[in-house]
Protein 1
Amino acid sequence: MELCHLKEIGLPMASMATLNGVHKEPRKPKEAPKEAHTLQATPVEKGDKREMRPQNALAQPATHATRPLYMDGTYIFECEAQVREMSLNEGVLSIELDQTLFHPQGGGQPSDTGLLCAKGLSDLSVVFVSKDKVKEGVIRHDCKADEAVIQAWLSHKGKELKVHCKVDEPKRRLAARLHSAGHLLDVAIFGLGFRWQAGKGYHFEEGPYVEYIPTNEGRQLDMKDAKAKTVAMEEISAKMKELVAKNISTEIGFVDGMRTISMDGVSCGCGGTHVESSSEIGEVSIKKIQAKQGNIRVSYAV
């Protein structure tokens, strides 16, 4: 599988503004759809709009003990933060911050990686970021360094410690392209007449795919018909090429505190990082369509 190298593909690099210690590009989120949605959703036509019908919509917006700055913009790579808690477990230093640019692994998207820097201390490598399984809204940064470096950081436990966060920019840009390609695939599938229900998404560099639950509505595909699958793959590939060239904007909105992502009228709830327009995704190739326990898995690459 040939993956596009991390080169610039029309990515916006406007002059930077500073707000609350965060370097970012000014950009106002667009209006959100009227309903809040989750990733598991069914496309529904509403006039000239296509929305993803929520299956497990949150009753209330999630609260964030750690402010997720990565939701403010994909192309924000550095920020300041305050350490709230540190703990050492089997040589890994887990750090909780008051705010972070690091996207935690989840929602089909891999964890960001990068560095944590502090005055008078050697840098820590952020190797994995995750949401705390016990403390709601807390994001943990698992860091590695030499033992002496870790002990130096731990000596500041319980004291005020400001850090500078640096996200691995090439990895973040690739993650955004992969994740947005998965959302654009939903648009292509709907545009070709299929009314499959979007389910599991896997937007990692190694073998990304979206898994759909087939329905009795719309166009049907016999998964036992090899020729029909080949035709569907070709049509989806052509449709993706068309949608990328169309330069469709990624619209970010909020409904009662819940974040939504919309592309060409197809929307759903999502907390991931995304490109600002489809042209930034670049070429998308459809690798395979296969049956998976009664579902339809569409594999792709960027």
Protein 2
Amino acid sequence: MKCFVWSQFLYASKTWTLNKNTEKRIEAIEMWIYRRMQRISWKEKVTNKKVLESVGLQRPELLLTIQRRKMKYYSHLRRHDSIQKRILEGKIDGRRGRGQRRQTWLGKMKMCEVCETALDRRRWRTMTTHLGDGMAPS
């Protein structure tokens, strides 16, 4: 599955915009693939937890892989001066609309913290390695 399906699915995933709906769909397709591999019908009412146990996993991996790739790509862009960096960090003149939330990265860190951390390769690698563990970056 990782050889044939994931390689096609993950193509250019580091440039995707992830939101809650997209994340739900990614997890749904991963669970669908596992169910197809195990020949488990949706009519059998088997929970996702049981399906993951039968495959030998504790939690879905596909979304974490995409998030790690996105983080590595951002770190790469942040450290090198390129047109992509200028586009990514471009500023828009004017004021932010009333009531909008401040921009965060993966719902954990503020953008300025992410920018600083991305410049230190060792700290960034530690943070991306422990992305799904719930550990806070140091």
Protein 3
Amino acid sequence: NCILIASWSSKLPQGLDVEISHHPITLRCVANLIIVMERLNGGKGFALGRDESLLNFLLESAVEGSSRAAFSSKGEYECSVTDSENKCWVLNEGSMELHAMMLQGGSSYHKVHLNLSTYITPVPSETKARPVALGIKGSNLYLSCITSEGTPTLHLEEVADKEQLKSINHESDMVRFLFYKQDTGVDISTLESAHYRNWFISTALQQDNTKMVNMCQSATPNRFTTFTVQRHN
């Protein structure tokens, strides 16, 4: 996305400037701007405030451009996640962290179940990755990716108002709650941060005794970045 700032002060009525900013450049946007400029330049002593149709035209164009620049929630389903060693995600409530652990028979109830929300991207993408938000079922906790000491890390954040997550502007810090889910096989996926590209949710080898689920860059040694995402409904 680009910032387009157009100012035609020499062609507009005295004291009037046109400025468009923070909207993706599209053919419709350019066409709309040309139409507005033609109408403004064609009328001597034109009063913008008294042309209701033009005001509506500008407002509708602004709203449409704004909606295209947002990730829009599409649906939600319940799922659970296991890594390549069949370790499950478990919530450590004391440290408010997700840990990857091997669960035996009677302890399977510790496995975290997620509410996975899918999104429509604001602009077409060449990849088939789908933006998703990951919330822990039965809570207001959501996975997010933020920097800690300059390094992207995985966190659990409480979201009191979940309406905030229904539409996320692509330039807002709420993008930290989004991850690109790229399917690499049947129920096998990677989860890449939408805020920090090329950083993936990952788990460590069982032998490393590092339980915390965290972020890593692709191809980081001794880290798993592919997961089985099992849908439950």
